């Protein structure tokens, strides 16, 4: 499956990331499917812990009551208070919450319900963790030096304080949304006790509010009564001091003011009126005097005075006549000339009217002058009186200042006394008001089911935590995923051609019967032993016993890659290498050579892993001579070759030699070169099983004589960085690699490591192309290829 037979790896571009989104949903789904077992394991672990917790946890019952903080309850007995701001309301509710949580209120509940002797409160059932903690405390107290024995009163008070502390720990107070309602709840192992203590808390809070109001008003009444007596005496004495000072200094008053002050105010008002009259008279006199001073000729033109300034109708009539005569005179002069008798008569009449108007203006000017002199005289008289009275009052200024000070003090004491008297009466009335500014709107009931532990929520939380832990474990596993899993890893990381997967032999697939060989060869020839029964005949016939399997198809793809690359070349040397030992390169080399031989090609398989000749150890009959002897010229190389009677595959083994030190020099020697030249003349394919690249440099030394390499790496085991670094360090080998084979592939898990759309996910559709060929007698599987 998943074969690519088109071009060589040198022309293969690296796979590009076709994901154009920030989050690859397909990849995430693939990861979830792949790591579903880890997630399920974490969920099972957390659910198990949750079940254990639920089995050993002590059931707790919670009873709740609700208290409304209502200032309107006392509105009929108290003055209305201004509307509080949101911040003030929050502070009031927060204060109520702290009062309910306080030690003082807990002590009141303990005393009211006699809880200092209640064993359910003092010695509740404890969890295993709490029991361990209590045991440690007892051990510490036993080792610590003891004090003097406590008295009975001290012991009773200690139990009382302990009960109050336990109540504080078990009570919960919270505000209901943004309302003025407080929810008070108490939890206990006894449902009846929980309801009783919750009711006791509500009653204790209401009584606390009543007692606080009563104590506050009582203390205020006592203090106000003492202050009122002192203020009454001081206010009376201040009033007497004011009366005595007035009588001693002759400071009589009327309507609350001194007589001298009233007289001075009246004179100032009269002076203001006189000043106005004098100014008005002066203005009229000066106006008319200026008109008269201009002479008779100008009197007529300046006599146009408004009626508001004078009420002399004579001037008005004379002026009217003058205007009429002047008009007639102009008409006659225009029509008949200036010398006309009528014009002369009219001019004489105008002069007479002018004289009369001027005389009237002179009379009015004299009259206004008299008025001006009278107003000025009156103003001067008022000024003299004010100056006289002001001088007289200045002598009493010092006395008035002292009098004002005494009156202010008397007024302040009187006002303060009246204020305190009102507060005293209000406090006296509120002292007997029997209602608190709070009320219970929801009575505490007996709980019917335990509130803790909550089984559904605990299990749900355990599942969520398990999923989170599974997600974290999955992320950790994915970040640590540094192995070759799918075809895309080979192309992306190494930039090499991918030839296919070699399944893990001996582990039957779950989905379809794709491949199940007759026998199960060893994972690697180096790991095989004589006791395991693994022979060379069995290991090299895996590809022959299942010719239509995934195993055989991958090796055929490798053959095709070599045919394409070496087209027209009669002899081909193909080396099989791996990065690390134990990756199955020897198994791959044996089966690849068997495939070539079974196709009719003259094939020679050389075991060139001189330090660890795994293929040679699998031969049924140990050889007496091999590759080393042939290279050194001790024996003809053809005499060291063994031939498999079934496949006609020629095999050149290696005798194990612990004293052979310079294996790389042997493989690069002239003798090895001559051997390969002779072998090329006799065989179409020469498959060489070389040592891994990581431990030794044998493959590097033999590389010049190899036409192409098949690189074998173990699926899900060999780190990608190791393979990449080794190949980058050996460009001579990397340039000749025909392709990469992923060995020991778990085909049942392969589809989980590819995204949607990957060919590995659709391998179940390839069943019709792969058949299971099972002989009549099957041997038990023991290892994988």
Automatic annotation (TrEMBL):
- Where does the record place the Tyrosine-protein kinase G-rich domain? 412-477
Compartments annotated for it: namely: Cell membrane
Q: Where do transmembrane segments lie in this chain?
A: 36-56
The first-level EC class reads transferase
- On the tree of life, the source organism's domain of life is Bacteria
Assigned EC number: 2.7.10.2
Q: Which organism is it from?
A: Rhizobium tibeticum
Entry keyword set: ATP-binding, Cell membrane, Kinase, Membrane, Nucleotide-binding, Transferase, Transmembrane, Transmembrane helix
**Its GO CC terms?**
plasma membrane
**How does the protein associate with the membrane?**
Multi-pass membrane protein
Q: What is its main location?
A: membrane
The record ties this protein, via CDD domains, to: BY-kinase
Which Pfam family, just one, is annotated for this protein?
GNVR
Q: Does the keyword Nucleotide-binding apply?
A: yes
Protein's name in the database: Succinoglycan biosynthesis transport protein ExoP
In this protein, which residues make up the domain named Polysaccharide chain length determinant N-terminal?
23-111
**InterPro entries in the cross-refs:** Bact_polysacc_biosynth/exp, EPS_ExoP-like, GNVR, LPS_length_determ_N, P-loop_NTPase, Wzc-like_C, YlxH/NBP35
